[in-house]
Amino acid sequence: MIIDLLTDSGTGAMSRDQWAGIQRGDESYAGSPSWFRFRDAVQKLFPFRHVIPTHQGRAAEKILFSVIAGPGKVVPNNSHFDTTRANVEVTGAEAIDLTPPRKPGELLPFKGDLDVDALERVISERGAESIPVVFMTITNNSNGGQPVSLANLRAVREICDRHGLPLFLDACRFAENAWFIRTREPGYESTPIPDIVREMAALADGMTMSAKKDGLANIGGWLALNDDGLAERCREVLILTEGFPTYGGLAGRDLEAIAQGLEEVVDEDYLRYRIRSTAYLGEALVASGVPVLQPIGGHAVYLDARALLPHIPPLEYPGQSLACALYVEGGIRGCEIGTVMFGQRPDGTEAPGPMDLVRLAIPRRTYTQSHIDYVIEVVRSVAERAADLRGLRIVDAPRSLRHFTARFAPLSS
Ligand SMILES: *Cc1c(COP(=O)(O)O)cnc(C)c1O
Prior knowledge:
Blueprint: E1 3-4, H1 16-24, H2 33-45, E2 50-54, H3 57-68, E3 74-77, H4 82-89, E4 94-97, H5 116-126, E5 134-137, H6 150-163, E6 167-170, H7 174-184, H8 193-202, E7 206-210, E8 221-225, H9 228-241, H10 252-265, H11 268-287, E9 300-304, H12 305-308, H13 318-330, E10 332-333, E11 335-337, H14 339-342, E12 357-361, H15 369-384, E13 392-396, E14 407-410
Parallel strand pairs: 1-10, 3-4, 5-6, 6-7
Antiparallel strand pairs: 2-8, 7-8, 9-12, 11-12, 13-14
Helix pairs in contact: 1-10, 2-10, 3-4, 5-6, 7-8, 11-15, 13-15
The chain binds pyridoxal-5'-phosphate (PLP).
């Protein structure tokens, strides 16, 4: 492999100061100075009363939903990330996505926004008492890394207030989201990024976070919230599954790396570079006529394999076929987000996913412009011979979450 665009999760390069933090890490079991540095860095941006460290975002999800969700409960979200959905569903609760359906090329500034009318409908149909929490994922990862506006967050907050519902953020890419607010939402052109982050936080009652994204770290996460009683119950599960409340599933050195990462991720120069370099790849592909999801999101470019390979039906996995071709042609690893990922029904049957995409996720501070120029060349050259690409069949797949481990073979005709 030459360029790895499988995910932006924990794959970034840490800075000099983060590595210095790693050396400084204090490994005391309880009350380590590294814990206090971590907690203060989180609360500086997200002033929630309780901060509960975990080894990853999904551990924060697991703890929260095991306490508040269960059979008969419903969790609305703009779009659940796959681990978030799985952690809701494993409790017996239902996960509902409320991002309105959009065309891949539809140019909207905040394509990650939640449909507030649909949220009102879910609340009136299912009853507020069946909804333990409303979630907002910023940026909207499952929907193209698209941002959510403060106006939309405020509208969701207003609905939650009217029905007495708590609002939580799945804040994995909060800094990228804040940058989009600053550059696209009227009135925020000159607001400092940390102030925009605090404004998002002030609209919520809590959050889950993967520090492998906008924590700029290789591992880590947290759950933060205001409710004292709920925090107490979550800490009990934390001790059972992750560790003592001042380290969660992390080493002291990890807490240091995250604390430093949170200082760096809200730096305007970093964010300008980050969002520009993703857009650079996307815009070059658009200019070459390669169909991609637009506008370009924060952390990834999504190739529209269904549009590029109309001769491959969804059940022959055009996204997987394109991902394989990029790897064979140029050693570039991407990730199918389409019928392989979403086409499997609980009863064992198959149906096309909503789209067939290949996500090229950009690790943070890792690749240079010439690496990306190489990616552009390879995608262009695969696109030129798109008609020669063939579909695939699955030769071996597990019963659930098949996209992680399924094996494929090419179809001959
Ligand atoms: C990555 C991610 C998670 C899960 O975090 P992990 O650290 O991978 O467990 C949850 N939500 C979103 C939006 C994510 O991108």
